[in-house]
Amino acid sequence: LDVGVEELEELIQGVDLMMDATDNFDTRLLMNDMALKHHIPWIYGGCVGSYGVTYTFLPGQTPCLHCLMGTVPFGGETCDTAGIIPQAVQMVTANQTTEAFKLLGGYPEDLRGKLLSFDLWKNEYVAIAVDRLKKSNCPSCGSQPTYPYLSTSHRQKTDVLCGRDTVQIRPANRIYLNLAEIADRFAALGEGNVEWNSYLVSFSVGEHRLVVFADGRALIHGTKDVAKARSLYHRYLG
């Protein structure tokens, strides 16, 4: 399922709480701005490998995801490139649903109030107070919010290339990928042929081929379905 602003505007009507079970930060930042616009709390949850993190966002009270980006180590691997152990999923969802019970049951004073980060394999468990990271000038939750991730300029760009059975995906904001690390990550999967040079990485998986460039742009060959192409992009690149 590929969700956008239009779908969320329709789905959010009458909603008391949003729960995150997505697999990419483009969608989460979209959810973040939508929740803030409609003054609806939402509970973030993410995990990969043995690592997990979760936090309850309360519009007008806590910092938002936009505030925390670049400061909190959310991680860049994906389940498909790094794997995941089910216990990490279970711990994240247990914490998310318990926080949801507190909110929906009318016990906001019992919310954890901190960002929970853990690594089961390394026996690490940390609850981080992030209140001070709330930014008064944040474009998503500050004093004059513009909700940037609801605008087209901050959305991932997709184009179906005419006659080539290919979708081009461009991140909303320019990023810089280490192509050698990307190539090693793909090769470690053992799923398909990997080739790379200083300009791009080519990775074949099944009937599709991903060509990834250092600026985050990618060509997804073997499909004209934008939703499928986006799914493959986030599956292997996060």
Topology of this structure?
Elements: H1 5-11, E1 18-19, H2 25-37, E2 42-48, E3 51-57, H3 65-68, H4 79-82, H5 86-104, E4 115-119, E5 124-128, E6 157-161, E7 166-170, H6 179-189, E8 194-196, E9 200-205, E10 208-213, E11 218-221, H7 226-237
Parallel strand pairs: 1-2
Antiparallel strand pairs: 2-3, 3-4, 4-5, 6-7, 7-11, 8-9, 9-10, 10-11
Fold and architecture overview:
This protein is α+β, with helices and mostly antiparallel strands and 238 residues long. It folds into two domains: 5-152, NAD(P)-binding Rossmann-like Domain (Rossmann fold); 156-237, TATA-Binding Protein, CATH 3.30.310. The chain has seven helices and eleven strands. It has helices at 5-11, 25-37, 65-68, 79-82, 86-104, 179-189, 226-237; strands at 18-19, 42-48, 51-57, 115-119, 124-128, 157-161, 166-170, 194-196, 200-205, 208-213, 218-221. Strand 1 (18-19), helix 2 (25-37) and strand 2 form a beta-alpha-beta unit. The model has no long low-confidence stretch (mean pLDDT 88).
What count of structural domains? Answer: 2
Low-confidence stretches are none
CATH architectural arrangement of the largest domain: 3-Layer(aba) Sandwich
CATH class of the largest domain: Alpha Beta
Q: How many whole angstroms does the radius of gyration measure?
A: 19 Å
Distance between the termini: 16 Å
- Largest pleated sheet: 6 strands, antiparallel
Structural class comes to alpha+beta
CATH topology value of the largest domain: Rossmann fold
Helix content: 25-40%
Strand content: 15-25%
Count of DSSP-assigned helices = 7
Averaged pLDDT:
88
